[in-house]
Structure formats: structure tokens, C-alpha cells
Amino acid sequence: MLASRPMWLSRGGVARLANKAKAGFTLVELLVVIAIIGGLIGLLLPAVQAAREAGRRTRCANSLKQIATGLHSFMTAKQRFPAGYLATTNSPQRDPTTHDGPPGTGWGLAIAAFMEESALSDAYNTIQGVAGAANTSIVSRPIATFLCASSTGPRTPFAVTGSDGTPLASGVMLGRSDYVANAGQADVWNSNTGRDEWNGLATGPLYRNSMVRPGDVMDGLSQTVFIGEHSQALSQKSWAGVVAGGWSQVDRAMSTASAGPGATFVLSHSGPTSGGPVHTPNDPGGHCDQMFSQHPAGSNVAYGDGGVRFVVADVDPTNWAATCTIAGGEKVSQSPQ
Predict the structure, then answer these.
(1) Which residue, of 16, 101, 192, 254, has the greatest Cβ tally within 10 A?
(2) Strand locations in the chain (E)
(3) Strands, sheet with 225-229, edge to edge from the N-terminal-most edge strand
(4) What letters, b where the CB count within 10 A reaches 16 and e where it falls short, cover 183-197?
């Protein structure tokens, strides 16, 4: 015989028990769960961001390694490193102030043939140069190797402008780069305007019409900076080269620095100069003609021996300046890493 339902449990009581069993989270319980999830996300997000930045930094280092290999392949073929950029300083087409003239071919374009970009290099008209109509589609091309993944700057080609920001009549567009070559301590493009030759003035390995050989780097290839970062978020840089009369414009949201003459499309300096201090990479007071990275803790740098190292943001300024000269004879007391 089936057990009978207790007399005190009415049908209404059964319904109330069933409804209670189906009830969900209370508001307090839901808020607690949301708070726990939010806390976990807060703990995990920095780790995820750090992992992503580590990946971007590694990709940047790999790009610099390819660039450094290109420099050495060029050196093996030509018995010298490429010029920072080539300019006929007595050309009728030269800029009257800077004496920059065609072809303006930069170090990045010079090593393109050694970086699996031989088709681009072969198509380049060396006579017309960077501003030549025949080279429009070449010099404006984006090349992934010359772009750092951590840079938040634009990626599209930029129109070359004069010192006042007005586009040049040639209408030339340049493909961007997040990497610049080291011309030494002094900003020879500002401190020596009107000079045709920079030999003896530029103390770095790559500058206008430079022809530096490994033996000229008396301080040692492993102790001399050749290539470093400069984010497009700060100012315009190009892998192709320099256009006479062009100026590298600064993103005013990132810096109060002034625009720089054409040489700063491809070159940088460390300081000190007669009117300023040493600016290490990532220095918030750095100018458009100095190295600047958007990696949080420092900057990737390629040395003359082909090695790529990470220079911390608080590197000793004296050591940084010493590693930016090829024959200064300075003693680097500690590794700038």
C-alpha cells in the first residue's frame, strides 16, 4: 500500500516548496560572483598584456636582426657599410639650406636587395632617386620588416612636406619605417647646415655619404650602435631615403619637439650637442632626430657586429653616448642592456 501524504502538507504547501527549489541566485550572490570574475580579470589582464608585448618585442628584435644581416651582407659585397643616405651636395637640385640633393637613397633601400626585396631594388631608378616619378610606387611601398609591432604610429605612406608643413610640389609619398640609423652624438644636420661634407663631423657609422668600413669602427663593432628604433607615433621616418627640402613632421599629441630636416627621415643622434644633453631611447624629452621606442621598458638596438640587444630605458646616458660613436675611445663601464 502506498504511503499517504501527511495531513499537514497541503497542495499549496507543495507548490511553494517547488517554487523555492527553482529559485535562482539572490542579488547579493550575483554581485559576489561578478566581483570575483572582475577580480580574476584584473589579475589576468596585465599578464596577458605583458605576454603580448613580449611577443611584439621579440618580433621587433627579429626585424632588427634581419636589418643587421642586410647591413653585413651589403658590407660583404661592397667592402663597406651603406651610407646613411646618398646626396649630391653640389647638385643644382639641392636644398639651399641643408645641401641635400638627389638621389637621397637611404640605408634601408640600399640593403633591400639583401633582405629578400631584390625585385624592388632592381626596379629602383638610381638616377632619378627617391623623389623621381619613376620610383613613386617603390618608395611609397610599406615593408613589414621596417615596422615595429609595438609602434602605435600610422602605417600608410606620408606626403613629404617642407618645414612649414606644406606638401612639396613633387607630391612624393614615402613608406614608413620605425627604425633609424645612428649618425653619432652630434646632430650634424642642424649644427652644420650649409656644409657639403660631414666627414670628421659625424661620429657614428651611418650618415650622409658615409663610407665606413669595419676597420674604421675603432671602438669595436660589438660596442657601437648602428640601428635603433624610432616610433612613427612620434615623427615621420622612411625606409627609402631623403627628399631634398623635405622635413620630418612631429605628431604633436606625442611630443612638443620641432620638425627635423630631411636627414632625420633616416638618421638619429644621441647627444650631447653644443646645446643639449644626451637623450637615451624612450626619453620623453627626446626629439624627432633621436631614438624612441614604445616598448615599455626600453628599446631594441642593432650593434655593428649584427647582434641585437635590448637597451633599458634608464641606461646610463654616458654609456649610451659612448656606444653611439665609432672611434671615440670611450670606456663603457657596463653593458647598455
Answers:
(1) 101
(2) 85-87, 103-106, 158-159, 173-174, 179-182, 225-229, 247-248, 260-261, 267-268, 298-303, 308-312
(3) 267-268, 179-182, 225-229, 298-303, 308-312
(4) bbbbbbbbebeeeee
**Would you say 234 and 288 are in contact if contact means Cβ atoms under 8 Å apart?**
yes
Q: pLDDT digits over 213-264, tens only?
A: 999 999 999 999 999 999 999 999 999 999 999 999 998 778 778 899 999 9
> What's the whole-model pTM score?
0.85
How many residues make up the chain in this entry?
337
Closest CA to 188 of 260, 256, 130, 92: 260
CB 266 within 8 A of CB 180: yes
Closest C-alpha among 283, 295, 309 to residue 224: 309
Residue 176 CA to its chain's centroid (Å):
10
Cβ-contact 181, 206 below 8 angstroms: yes
Confidence of residue 51 (pLDDT cuts 50, 70, 90): confident
CA dihedral (277, 97, 174, 158) in degrees, to 10, reads 70
**Dist CA 77 CA 75 (whole Å):** 5
Listed in sequence order, the residues at least 6 apart from 134 whose beta carbon sits closer than 8 Å to its beta carbon are: 125, 128
